């Protein structure tokens, strides 16, 4: 019997290797992290298994900056705000003495960082408010079409991490509903989430401020303001999940200490066996390497120390991913 099976094994082994390399998560290397994620999905969707999760409970949440796309040297939305200030400044002489505008014009990131939350709010007020929502959408679209990442040289909306995009598709194929829960602006992210990640706008939750409804001569209009600003980070993430989603997630993916409350909230789900995953930026050659000292945002100290206690999977970008970006969308080749 063994003699008969040997030729079959010889035939199947190359096929099995091909399947692993070209399967739904082909941009992931064979590693404990990948195995843990795949095993969790398999157990959660096994109808008669002890860890089966009913389809109506399969809500999975993802941070965006640093989890689905890069956040260095600046978060993409902050870079958009800086570029918009520089584009608009010549038409606004009243801005010329504003220290935040001056710092943006000089690309003085140290001064912008020193300006802190108040400086960020100034940038957002100048570039994200006092306009109809349709105008803001047009500005974002124009920026995406005309600007490239300073390091990778690719359009910002082509820089979604290929392993994570594959994971999103895989989870949806298995009956999970994928949401973005991020500190990024809700309107900004909604302009890219559908095309980049296959996530519709109603499943994108981010920082926001209130809009104002107005009647116009040709219909109605929603005007963006900075009133009632809600910054969707850290402890606010579980709050926004409850407010917008109405379900406790069964899995959560993040990359920074700002995502820890969201992972803790998910890990406390007593109805299922939950999954928590942290993306650790360890690849200075193909992307960036940081945890305690990020260039802009994404500090990861507390999350790494808590991961063993909660059983969170820590994905090592350098060793767990064989691709970072989709070569069909971004042909960035790191120097060797």
TrEMBL record:
UniProt entry tagged with the keyword Cell membrane: no
Origin: domain of life: Bacteria
Record bears the keyword Hydrolase: yes
InterPro entries membership: HAD-like_sf (IPR036412), HAD_sf (IPR023214)
Keywords: Hydrolase, Metal-binding, Signal
Pfam families per the UniProt record, alphabetical: HAD
Secretion signal span: 1-19
Coiled coil residues, start to end: none
SUPFAM superfamilies listed in its UniProt record: HAD-like (SSF56784)
GO MF term list: hydrolase activity; metal ion binding
Protein's name in the database: Haloacid dehalogenase-like hydrolase
